Amino acid sequence: xxxxxxxxxxxxxxxxxxxxxxxxxxxxxxxxxxxxxxxxxxxxxxxxxxxxxxxxxxxxxxxxxxxxxxxxxxxxxxxxxxxxxxxxxxxxxxxxxxxxxxxxxxxxxxxxxxxxxxxxxxxxxxxxxxxxxxxxxxxxxxxxxxxxxxxxxxxxxxxxxxxxxxxxxxxxxxxxxxxxxxxxxxxxxxxxxxxxxxxxxxxxxxxxxxxxxxxxxxxxxxxxxxxxxxxxxxxxxxxxxxxxxxxxxxxxxxxxxxxxxxxxxxxxxxxxxxxxxxxxxxxxxxxxxxxxxxxxxxxxxxxxxxxxxxxxxxxxxxxxxxxxxxxxxxxxxxxxxxxxxxxxxxxxxxxxxxxxxxxxxxxxxxxxxxxxxxxxxxxxxxxxxxxxxxxxxxxxxxxxxxxxxxxxxxxxxxxxxxxxxxxxxxxxxxxxxxxxxxxxxxxxxxxxxxxxxxxxxxxxxxxxxxxxxxxxxxxxxxxxxxxxxxxxxxxxxxxxxxxxxxxxxxxxxxxxxxxxxxxxxxxxxxxxxxxxxxxxxxxxxxxxxxxxxxxxxxxxxxxxxxxxxxxxxxxxxxxxxxxxxxxxxxxxxxxxxxxxxxxxxxxxxxxxxxxxxxxxxxxxxxxxxxxxxxxxxxxxxxxxxxxxxxxxxxxxxxxxxxxxxxxxxxxxxxxxxxxxxxxxxxxxxxxxxxxxxxxxxxxxxxxxxxxxxxxxxxxxxxxxxxxxxxxxxxxxxxxxxxxxxxxxxxxxxxxxxxxxxxxxxxxxxxxxxxxxxxxxxxxxxxxxxxxxxxxxxxxxxxxxxxxxxxxxxxxxxxxxxxxxxxxxxxxxxxxxxxxxxxxxxxxxxxxxxxxxxxxxxxxxxxxxxxxxxxxxxxxxxxxxxxxxxxxxxxxxxxxxxxxxxxxxxxxxxxxxxxxxxxxxx
Length: 921
Ligand SMILES: *[C@@H]1O[C@H](CO)[C@@H](O)[C@H](O)[C@H]1NC(C)=O
Ligand SMILES: *[C@@H]1O[C@H](CO)[C@@H](O)[C@H](O)[C@H]1NC(C)=O
Ligand SMILES: *[C@@H]1O[C@H](CO)[C@@H](O)[C@H](O)[C@H]1NC(C)=O
Ligand SMILES: *[C@@H]1O[C@H](CO)[C@@H](O)[C@H](O)[C@H]1NC(C)=O
Ligand SMILES: *[C@@H]1O[C@H](CO)[C@@H](O)[C@H](O)[C@H]1NC(C)=O
Ligand SMILES: *[C@@H]1O[C@H](CO)[C@@H](O)[C@H](O)[C@H]1NC(C)=O
Ligand SMILES: *[C@@H]1O[C@H](CO)[C@@H](O)[C@H](O)[C@H]1NC(C)=O
Description:
The chain has 15 helices and 55 strands. By secondary structure, the protein is an alpha/beta fold. Strand 20 and strand 21 (363-364) form a beta hairpin. Helix 10 runs antiparallel to helix 11 (713-720).
């Protein structure tokens, strides 16, 4: 345009207007052409066609490939990049675009992968990761000969890896991690990939590749190797001909979560001395940390956490002058910490992360580092992360410990025996984003120096001896915090409006907070306020949209009024614990829209009316509605739809009608408590269909339980083992105890007392060999006590009193130890412990002796079992509310997430997705 104007000025008064017009046209078209020219290299027709054909066989629910075909130039389509000179498609990146936002996430691609991709002869980069293709990796991938990078991580491929992949001689990056291959038989194909620089086969089952070090030995260009969670077999360094100098280029090595023993140290030392990163966490490494790292002068990051390593940081670490990160979390380190810190002296100016925490995911070792923290820690001037939590460290923490730590961002010293001597007026040299001083005595007043930490995102001061109310400024500070744990202090006062904060996780449980529930941050994910004195209605939960809320525990407060009706917005709510409050009214039917809720605890309130349908809440695993005034029949949908139910407690309500047969479909129910209701009719004959109670082959740590609890299920699963019980006591049951009940051979506790049961006891009652507690008292049961009772070796609690039983009490180690009152009120019952003899006793002396001999085989301490049972009975919510009530677990869990950073979280999510896919098959 400037040229045109210039020209017209030059041409004076536009005499040659025609000429000018023409020129204009020429110039304009030239400009136009050149602009077309620069971006013009339209993609090749055949490649465009091939891509469209590829698209056709893909199932694309979210229309991820909308741009494919809508624009002519395929080089502009999503995920495509072309060579800007030749126009050939060089890159095809259809990696699933993950998003933190579960709600708006796109669906992964599915369907067939069409061989038309072979048309893309220049393809350098192919990434189909995190989709859901299923089936084998297409063989034709082995013919995409120009490929340099092939990424197929977590794409749900199965079968085995086509050996033709070994033809991709240009490949320098291969990522097959997280697929469902059958255990691979050999890795011969791998050895042809001589250009390979980066290999990731994490989470692929390599348990059969006994000679895996050999298989890798030809990959001489390898710089990065990731074989984590592969069930890599252990190997003996001596019997395996170690491949010396096989790959001197290796710099990054991750072999975490395998079964490797300490031999791996020597393989590593042989394979390269150029390592920058080594990750061996979660193996079977034992003994002291060996001196193999001494020549790895470039080593910057070493993770040996979650093993059984002993001692401390060895002297040889004095060579490691580039060390930036050292993670020894969760081992059996027990040395005096002073020596360990001394051996890091060369890294004084480089060390950024030092993690010596002994716990992992809530599991605390009995081993601890001891001694007092040397002041020389204060000289590690590059230190950004200092994690010493959960040890037995003692001594006084003073300002000297932080003297030069101006870069410190994360400080975790919780759960030691430190005494804290930091002046309230201290002006720390650092600005932390994480501070964990739980179980350190930082109170009684909230320390003023913490108020200088304006970048805080994570603040954990649980059980820190803080009394009184928090300074107002405090809440200003917290407005930028993501995770706040001030539980188990004596903080009182009212909670201010928190809707303008960034809080994602708040734990203020076990304090003295009062007033009404405030409104919370829209980012909130976990809200823990149990065991305070918060009163009034729940309605403020509805005041803000909180779409990410997953965990709510406001149990043991003084909440009153009815449940609000805003549950539609909590699409991700998994745990709702409002137990032990004063809530009233009916349960709004909208609660039944909580599709992913897995724990619902409303026990100990004054709710009434009939239950709304929860038939769509199919992930429910724990339902406790006990101690309310609910009425109506026990709904049939419980058994039809809630197939993941592990614990169902409806005790102490006003439920009536019969026990629906559908309850027998609850295949993994561990604890069924219908006691103290108005239930009538007979006991169902199908209880033996409850496979977890009847069948030993059904694991306690069943898939569903694992799915529900992810990180915390570890603790829960183990305790669940001892919790298999049925309690239908104090109802109006009639009829006989069905024979089929004796097939519940995993049952540990059975209480049918205070009903109107009649008839005889099934002869083979003793088949329920694991019974530790049996109460059939106050019924009308008649006949004799079957002799099979004498094989109930684990019985610690028994009550048969007040029935119509008669005949001899069978003789066993257990049955005679119970107080006679447990047999009283049965008109015809005789023999010890009730009476010394039955009429006509002498004749059977021999039989008794035989029985005694037999019983001695199974003699086990009675006291032990009594304590187990007592634990079982009183421990209901202690055990099963692991997440809800026992804050240390919860605490450990969340902290674990914080500290372990993203990958563990991602892994958990992916793992869940994998399981779900597997279930759908
Ligand atoms: C073409 O691609 C090369 C290499 O990818 C790049 O360096 C160059 O800047 C690109 N040229 C244009 C005009 O985009
Ligand atoms: C990935 O998703 C985010 C948010 O969901 C979106 O902003 C971004 O454009 C997507 N990326 C691609 C390549 O489509
Ligand atoms: C591939 O696409 C994903 C998702 O859109 C994106 O996150 C990733 O950065 C891309 N990779 C490359 C190398 O462009
Ligand atoms: C591809 O691999 C197969 C066996 O894996 C081999 O027989 C064939 O010669 C290879 N082709 C090329 C071009 O390397
Ligand atoms: C459960 O979901 C189905 C299908 O979405 C729906 O038709 C039904 O009404 C829902 N039931 C309840 C009680 O919300
Ligand atoms: C039990 O049954 C008897 C006789 O059938 C009846 O008289 C009694 O009231 C019943 N007791 C209860 C608690 O239902
Ligand atoms: C049996 O129980 C009764 C009542 O509970 C109690 O008084 C008595 O001491 C007990 N006897 C023995 C031997 O424990």
